[in-house]
Automatic annotation (TrEMBL):
This protein's name: Glycosyltransferase
Keywords of the record: Cell wall biogenesis/degradation, Glycosyltransferase, Golgi apparatus, Membrane, Signal-anchor, Transferase, Transmembrane, Transmembrane helix
Compartments (UniProt record): Golgi apparatus membrane
SUPFAM superfamilies per the UniProt record, alphabetical: Nucleotide-diphospho-sugar transferases (SSF53448)
InterPro entries: At1g28695/At4g15970-like (IPR044821), Nucl-diP-sugar_transferase (IPR005069), Nucleotide-diphossugar_trans (IPR029044)
GO terms of molecular function: glycosyltransferase activity
Organism this protein belongs to: Spirodela intermedia
Length: 383
């Protein structure tokens, strides 16, 4: 038992020894330690002068060898942790070959790095067409720079890239990027509203967002053609599990006849929302060719909402406006969406106008702002 005690003590001291070493140095050290273990065993257990070993001696030697060789590896894994052991890069991605780590670890890592204290993240998705220089991504990020206290929100934004080029562009412009693999599909080019690839893209999004909820994160999902001008959190309903923007808002946040827009929503992670996202995704089979927003319109009155106790809230356009129904108050608006607009060129034109209108508003003296006279000049091409 004396040799077992000493072996255990040597293994327990590995945490302090290995912590400052690199992975290669640590593995080399463990190899040397294993050789040292064998040599030590020989010192403590010399040959028995021709006397055959007993079964007890065989068992004890086997246990000592296993403890001396494997226990350090367990300690190394446990103390360093998955993220530390795999040496995280400074771009929210694991700095190793894609085959070496799972997509789940990558996603968990980027979400953890971007999350607000209450485990909320801001998510958007885009392809190469929207990420290209001078396209939607540049305007999207610019809006955070021009908004009121919105620059800090960029620290909590995760851009989900739908193709390799979009991911590379994201890494050059932003901190938190995640490459969502879509095998057998090419989403790099512009996908026009209601085309087959557009519909596929919306369902990939719904399935991805369900995974984020299952990982325990609340999220604000925003299309990239939404300009951010103020922090949204004060405008959300405290009791809402699932809160969604509207193309047309009738004044009642609980009225299911509001015309929804799936491009902006705030979802809390709980059993109710996870069940609803699964239900939503499954219902696509009953509505072939329909995108996520249409299917949500079909099911938002289903019994399941009552059964699971989901509190669905519709967000007012005065706070979360768009080209369909622009916000009526510059002093209150949080976002403006290039909705009711088909085609990238038209969107870019009107998004630039929205940004110009916001900048002009910010130049006004407080006395003029208080008159509520400033108006949006959109739609222009988005008609």
């Amino acid at each position: 038992m004396q040799s077992l005690s000493r072996s255990g003590l040597r293994a327990l001291s590995l945490c302090n020894i290995l912590s400052p070493l690199s992975i290669n140095e640590s593995v080399g050290f463990i190899g040397a330690l294993s050789r040292f273990q064998r040599q030590t065993e020989a010192l403590y257990h010399p040959p028995l002068m021709g006397k055959p070993p007993t079964w007890r001696r065989r068992f004890l030697c086997a246990m000592l060898t296993i403890a001396g060789v494997t226990f350090p590896y367990v300690l190394l894994y446990d103390t360093a942790g998955i993220a530390g052991f795999l040496q995280l890069s400074n771009r929210s991605f694991l700095n190793l070959n894609d085959d070496a780590v799972s997509d789940e670890i990558k996603l968990r890592t980027v979400l953890k790095e971007a999350a607000i204290v209450d485990n909320t993240v801001i998510l958007t998705m885009m392809n190469e067409a929207w990420a290209a220089p001078g396209s939607v991504l540049d305007l999207f990020l610019e809006s955070f720079q021009t908004g009121e206290r919105t620059v800090r929100l960029l620290e909590h934004l995760v851009i989900v890239a739908l193709d390799e080029k979009a991911y590379e562009i994201c890494k050059s412009k932003h901190t938190h990027c995640y490459a969502l693999k879509t095998e057998g599909a090419d989403f790099s080019q512009e996908k026009l509203f209601l085309t087959e690839d557009y519909v596929k893209m919306t369902w990939i999004r719904i399935n991805f967002l369900r995974v984020v909820l299952e990982m325990g994160y609340d999220f604000i999902f925003t299309d990239a053609d939404i300009m951010w001008f103020r922090d949204h959190m004060p405008s959300f309903y405290k009791d809402g599990d699932f809160q969604i923007a509207c193309d047309r808002f009738n004044g009642n946040p609980d009225d299911r006849t509001n015309i929804i827009n799936g491009g902006f929503k705030y979802i809390k992670s709980n059993e109710k929302t996870i069940k609803f996202y699964k239900y939503w995704y499954e219902k696509r089979v009953e509505h072939p060719g329909a995108h996520d927003q249409d299917v949500l319109n079909y099911i938002k009155g289903d019994q399941i909402l009552h059964d699971i106790g989901l509190n669905l809230k519709y967000l007012p356009t005065v706070d979360f406006g768009g080209i369909c129904e622009p916000s009526s108050d510059f002093n209150q608006v949080s976002t403006m969406h290039a909705n009711c607009c088909i085609g990238l060129i038209d969107k870019l034109n009107d998004l630039k106008v929205i940004l110009k209108d916001w900048r002009q508003y910010n130049t006004l003296p407080p006395s003029v702002k208080g008159r509520h006279e400033h108006k949006w000049r959109v739609p222009q091409l988005c008609r």
